Amino acid sequence: MTDNITYAQPVRGHRRVERRLAARARTVAEAYALLAPSLAGFLLFLVAPIFGVAALSLFDWNLMGAPSFVGLDNYRELAADSEVWRAVLNTIYYVVLNIPAQTVLALLLALALNRRMRGGKVLRVVFVLPWMAMPVALGIIWSWVFDPRYGAVNQLLGMVGIDGPNWLTDPAWAMPVIASVNVWQYTGYTMLILLAGLQAIPHTLYEAAAIDGTTPVQRFFMITLPLLRPSLFFVLVTNTIGSFQIFDTVFVMTQGGPGGATDVLNFHIYQQGFQLFRSGYASALAMVLFALILLVTAAQFLYFRKRTVYDFS
Amino acid sequence: MSRKIALSAVAAAALLSLAACGGGGADDSDSTGGAVTLRYAMWDEVQKPPIEQSIREFEKAHPGIKVQIELNNWNDYWSKLQTQLAGRSAPDVFWDHVSYFPKFSKEGVLTDLAPLIAQDKVDTSIYDPKLAEGWKVDGKVYGLPKDWDTIGLFYSTKALKDAGLTPADLDGLTWNPADGGTFVKTLQKLTVDENGKRAGEPGFDPKKIKQYGLAMQAPTGQQDWWNFALQNGCKLQDKPWGRWTIDQPACVQAIQFVQDLRLKYHVAVPATVTNPPNGPSLDQVVGRGEAATAMDGSWMLRAFDTALPNGGFGVADLPAGPVGKGSVYNGLTEAVYAGTKHPKEAWELLKWLISERHQKAVAQAGAVWPGITSLNDVFADAWKAKGVDVTGFKKAAEGTTMGYPLTEAADVYNVKALDIFNQVWLGQLSPQDAAQKITTEANAAIK
After folding, report:
1. Which residues of chain B fall below pLDDT 70?
2. B19 to A44: CB separation less than 8 angstroms, yes or no
3. Measuring CA to CA, which residue among A132, A98, A124 is closest to residue A238?
4. How far apart are CA B222 and CA B199, in angstroms?
5. Residue A286 and residue A62: Cα distance in Å, rounded?
6. Which residue has the higher pLDDT, A150 or B247?
7. Is A74-305 a domain of CATH 1.10.3720.10?
8. Tens of pLDDT, residues A273-310
9. pLDDT for A10
10. Is the pLDDT of residue A72 over 80?
């Protein structure tokens, strides 16, 4: 068979194939050369540390003395560590508080700002502003706002006769407060991505649907939502990953307290690694967080893969 | 085409070498125009200005050395320092604390100063032996005394006057676990609600308190419950380097008393305001009139003087407990990093920091009681000139004292205590449960 094909190629064509192959090789080489800087950075600063952490999770090391190999001891210990399980549950609780609220709010905002209206562009900027601010600075400012005695929230509640709680020192309120601060901060960014997605949906689809006598609600569920899936997919995946990695707001506002109520995995890793100097154990915890995020992201990919349309034409 | 590839390869190589440079942060401090730059780390911003001023003089005397001060608050200081030690990029000279000293000396990150002391014939007999001895291990000297401190009762003169009290009324106060004693009675007089009613008076509303009698705040216990523990006969450990015994009744009672001051007697500022690390420092709390008095360390004098200037504050002794008087006593040292690239210059800086000239300048500024015994009067006189009698701190140091616990579990104790006791002060955890929890967790960290 192969012989036949080879013989069947005219000499000119043979050269053309060679040329095409050579050109392709050049293109590939060029692509790699262009990729090289970011690929090197990616391997050096993102992939290599993951292997480093994986290796470190098999050691007991206080950062100063010599590390000693302990096999899977760190993993055995964390499986039996109630604080770790609490941190996992706290993290999931935070994600559950954060992601739905943030996504629904951002979608509503995007739908509102997608209409032509006076001041729409200004509002867009206003909603994105919190996302551009530093989380640590915001955390400090929000701690003041939620201060039980002098904070704006309880002063306002006091005006309508409500005795506001001690937001950040009450175990029941601390996590919702942290989540609301982050919802406030990241909704604008999510809104921006969704707005871009909305604007990519062709108007003709709505016009045709309107002629067919559909209601606005029907159009939202049958056109907007399905065609917004690529954007929704993107924000859900990236925001979920980001939420699992929540650290700065917790660090500034509660330090994991009160009584571990906001001790999320990333803060627990920090505490074990940089306050108690158990870097092996902290690395094992980091691998747990990595696995958790990997699982959730994989599930999201599987769910969206079947249902997402990327081409509107 | 190939030229393009070559170009991008060069660009990639350039980027990589740039990236490689990024890691060498430790070298940044090396040399600027021939001068060596030393890094000097500390955690107290109240002390920084007079120290910095004296260091500028050191730089004038040593044209080849520049000193860069690195300031981080207590909570961040130890995380940062230990991470830097692990990364072999620690500051050349830094403040050391007795609770971290054991680990540091064991890991060999501190320079042994003994040969240098011998070589330069430094007279170490001028330091209080109580301070200097703790830093020697097997003939090696890992630090020289910077200062010492005890705890006192800082008060606002205005708040005292408004309550019809004089400073003399704060002398000889006593407390007990049963009814709080004269200490609580006095604090009640200093606690006022929004209608001007004082605690204990009929119609007093503990939910709307404008000024509390007392403010307390301590990440480890040093400025609050350890003192009551000592006055109640509690021992935090069975022996130095031993096991923690905070679950003993005398300790639990002391913890209970601090909780009672807030939740039962309503005379102490609520933990929602004061809990570390986010609460405002106590000079602020007293300065803005939220509390009449505060238990704090002698190193806070300058801060109180800023918040309540021109005779606005004074210092009284801590009350006596069932067992008697007592205060936590502690001192810091100046230490040299074993991995410093400039051991000679670092030793020069250390010699300056422990010199009479430097400690005198810092004492004159009223920053801290000096490590050099003969300079104690300089400090006391500096405050006397401002109308503040600080000799109570010295009397406390000469009386019954308790040092920081000597333990290898300092990291665990410090991290856990912060969280556990914050909950106790908020009323979310009982003193008994808290004592058991901290004892178990700190003991688990002892090998």
Report:
1. 1-33
2. yes
3. A98
4. 27
5. 16
6. B247
7. yes
8. 988 889 999 999 999 999 999 999 999 999 887 766 56
9. 52
10. yes
Find the residue in A nearest to B426 (Cα): A169
Name the CATH code of domain B151-330+391-444 (choices 3.40.190.10, 1.10.3720.10, 3.30.70.20, 3.90.1300.10): 3.40.190.10
**Overall CATH class of domain B27-149+331-383:** alpha beta
- Interface check for A275 against chain B (CB to CB < 8 A): the answer is yes
Domain boundaries, chain B: 27-149+331-383, 151-330+391-444
Q: Would you call A148 and B277 a contact, using CB atoms and an 8 Å cutoff?
A: no
The angle formed by the CA atoms of residues A298, A300 and A306, to the nearest 5 degrees, is 105
Q: Do B426 and A41 touch (CB under 8 A)?
A: no
pLDDT digits (tens, 9 = 90+) for A22-42: 888 888 889 999 999 999 999
pLDDT of residue A308: 62
- Reported ipTM: 0.80
Q: Which pLDDT tens digit goes with each residue over A170-212?
A: 889 999 999 999 999 999 999 999 999 999 999 899 999 999 9
- CB-nearest partner of A271 from B271, B275, B415: B415
For chain B, the helix, strand and coil percentages under 3-state DSSP, each to the nearest 5: 45, 20, 35
Residues of A in contact with B424 (CB under 8 A): none
pLDDT tens per residue, range A73-127:
999 999 999 999 999 999 999 999 999 999 999 999 999 998 888 888 888 889 9
pTM (2 decimals)? Answer: 0.83
Say if strands B330-336 and B93-96 run parallel, antiparallel, or are unpaired.
Answer: antiparallel
CB atoms within 10 A of CB B90: 23
* A9 touching B (Cβ < 8 Å): no
List chain B residues with CB under 8 Å of A143.
Answer: 278
Alpha-carbon gap, residue B246 to B237, rounded angstroms: 7
Q: Is B240 helix (H, G, I), strand (E, B) or coil?
A: coil
Same topology, domains B27-149+331-383 and B151-330+391-444? Answer is yes
Kindly determine whether residue B1 and residue A26, on different chains, have CB atoms separated by under 8 Å. Answer: yes
The residues on B that touch A, with CB distances below 8 Å, are 1, 4-5, 8-9, 11-12, 15-16, 19, 78-79, 82-83, 85-86, 103, 107, 109, 271-273, 275, 277-278, 411-412, 414-415, 418-419, 422-423, 426, 428-429
> CB distance from A28 to chain B under 8 Å?
no
Chain A's closest residue to B85, CA to CA, is: A64
Partner-chain contact B12 A166, CB within 8 Å: no
Return the ∠ at Cα A199 (arms to A197 and A205), rounded to 5°: 105
